[in-house]
Write a sequence for this structure.
């Protein structure tokens, strides 16, 4: 698939030697008349890096700007099934491109965001949703952190109470640290 | 006693992390569970790789079970899977249907000429639209589809001898036992 996803990753790779040259050049840059050239090359590389990123998303014939915003919003909420730490909007994987096209087509057919999400969930499971719905399978995901927080609060409360009680009865008798207060 | 609490907490964390490591050696963390399991396979109508004028639909394949193997010439792991499929495919007891995914037909034919063709039937999905209905997101992927057209098992990633022995063959056996 790397062969097919071509453009942007390949373009990115091509820049790596460029950066390497720049680093080795900077070490002797002070005396070298080439440093100005290097700087120009560096600036050009930065510009092209932005250009390559913009190319990752092909232009689509949106009906209007509102639809384009809706498309961007929706694809940022969905996860690419292949590059699983990327959104559909950002990913350059072939499947992400196909799914973006599919979403675009469905938008032209007047499908709602919810219908499009359902379409994807029916094929790729709840995995594609960055914001998973609250179901029997995901309640631990949603409330797990809260449970851990409550458990921690409980431990702290018990510890404070115990120390308070111990302090009030023993403080006058044993003012030295008994080593028990972790 | 209370001095032991931090230690107990630490050991609980060790246990939790150890479980996480063990779990990830047993499961592919990138594999997405398919919602299509035990549901009818999606409808499709795709051209044959070698005779693009002829198409094959889901209805054409009803009546006997088959293993739908998604592959492509650009897919590196398919090269890992291929010898296993060639060696074990004929012993599986189901037809092997090759699903050429997002591939140029000439590349696919060249790849098969080079590595051998273990498939009983080859269909091609160059645009990859039908693959979305199957929930395919890469290659290789394999679907076991029974005589009624229901997806009985799915594997994401290459079929290894281990996966064949532990998952695919038992799934085929269970399917054939139910409806020989």
């Amino acid at each position: 698939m790397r062969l097919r996803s071509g453009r942007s990753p390949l373009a990115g790779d091509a820049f790596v030697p460029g950066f390497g040259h720049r680093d080795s050049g900077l070490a002797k840059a002070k005396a070298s008349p080439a440093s100005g050239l290097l700087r120009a090359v560096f600036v050009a590389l930065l510009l092209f890096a932005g250009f390559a990123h913009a190319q990752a998303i092909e232009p689509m014939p949106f009906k209007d700007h509102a639809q384009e915003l809706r498309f961007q919003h929706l694809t940022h909420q969905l996860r690419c099934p292949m590059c699983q730490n990327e959104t559909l909007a950002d990913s350059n994987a072939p499947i992400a491109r196909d799914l973006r096209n599919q979403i675009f087509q469905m938008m032209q057919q007047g499908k709602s965001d919810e219908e499009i999400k359902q379409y994807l969930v029916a094929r790729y499971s709840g995995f594609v949703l960055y914001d998973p719905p609250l179901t029997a399978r995901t309640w631990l995901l949603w409330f797990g952190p809260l449970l851990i927080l409550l458990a921690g609060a409980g431990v702290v409360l018990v510890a404070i109470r115990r120390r308070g009680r111990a302090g009030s009865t023993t403080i006058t008798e044993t003012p030295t640290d008994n080593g028990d207060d972790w | 006693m209370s001095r032991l609490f931090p230690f107990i907490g630490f050991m609980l964390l060790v246990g939790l992390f150890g479980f996480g490591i063990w779990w990830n050696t047993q499961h592919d963390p990138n594999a997405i569970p398919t919602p299509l399991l035990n549901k009818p396979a999606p409808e499709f109508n795709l051209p044959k790789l070698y005779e693009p004028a002829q198409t094959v639909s889901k209805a054409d394949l009803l009546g006997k079970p088959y293993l739908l193997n998604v592959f492509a010439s650009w897919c590196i792991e398919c090269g890992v899977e291929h010898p296993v499929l060639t060696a074990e495919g004929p012993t599986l007891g189901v037809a092997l249907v090759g699903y050429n995914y997002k591939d140029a037909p000439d590349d696919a034919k060249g790849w098969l000429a080079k590595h051998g063709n273990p498939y009983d039937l080859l269909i091609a999905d160059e645009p990859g639209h039908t693959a979305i209905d199957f929930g395919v997101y890469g290659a290789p992927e394999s679907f076991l589809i029974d005589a009624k057209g229901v997806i009985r098992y799915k594997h994401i990633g290459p079929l290894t001898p281990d996966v064949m022995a532990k998952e695919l063959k038992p799934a085929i056996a269970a399917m054939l036992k139910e409806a020989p």
Notes: DSSP finds seven helices and no strands in chain A. Chain A has three domains: 1-56, 60-132, 134-182. Confidence is low (pLDDT under 50) at residues 1-31, 52-56 of chain A. Chain A touches chain B through 23 residues (CB under 8 Å).
